[in-house]
Amino acid sequence: MNFTYWNMNLTYMDFTCSNINLSCSNVTYGTESADILVVVNISDAFAGKATVMLFLVRQYFGAKQLSKLTKIELIA
User: Could you tell me the keywords of this UniProt record (predicted)?
Assistant: First the structure.
């Protein structure tokens, strides 16, 4: 699986994503699923929220497709 990390911080918080783990290396569209784990760290003195978005690109289509969106609470 070709994986590219992309972070667009649209908040005033300073956070980073790391330790991205995939449960498999290849997924057939529509018939299989994969577990994805990412660690999000905040380096600010205040707690806040961040939105983690998962974009997928199918093999023969160049456009990114938003597949999952999750809002998480970050503790300072």
Answer: Hydrolase
